[in-house]
Amino acid sequence: MSKNGKNTAGILAGLLAGAAAGVILGMLYAPEEGKETRKKIKDKAGDLKDQAKNKYGEVSEKVKDQYSNISSTFKETASSVAHTVKDGYDKYKDQIVSKTADVVKDVETELNDLKK
């Protein structure tokens, strides 16, 4: 996961924890019956749990999409580099074979001249 993704997840977790603490403290100091307060805390905790699941799902999907994009880009780049290297190899191989044939002809010519 990228550094930005870690920061976002940390901020999200901090915000959710702060919201939960604020709601709980507010309910505890509210002038209501204990039973009603506990029910509200339980309901709010369920709501926060659902929100956290939703955010986790969203972040998870974004990470999967980014991984897919990066993976795809890497594969394309690697393929392009491989083709470039192969094309360069083929080009220089043909030049070397041609130059080698020229050198062999020159050596044969020199040897024939020396034999005469």
Mean pLDDT level = 82
Poorly predicted regions:
none
Number of strands: 0
Global outline:
rod-shaped
Cα-atom radius of gyration: 36 Å
Instruction: Summarize the amount of helix as a percent range.
Output: over 70%
Described by strand count, sense and barrel closure, the largest sheet is: none
- The H-and-E topology, N to C, reads as HH
| Share of β-strand residues | under 5%
Kindly name the structural category.
Answer: mainly alpha
N-to-C CA distance: 77 Å
State the helix count.
2
Keywords: Membrane, Transmembrane, Transmembrane helix
Protein name: Gas vesicle protein
Transmembrane segments: 12-30
Topology:
Blueprint: H1 3-29, H2 34-115
Please provide a written account of the structure.
The chain has 116 residues and is mainly α. It has a domain at 35-114. The protein is 94% helix and 0% strand. It contains 2 helices and no strands. The protein has helices spanning 3-29, 34-115. It is rod-shaped, with a radius of gyration of 36 Å. The termini are far apart. 0% of the residues are buried.
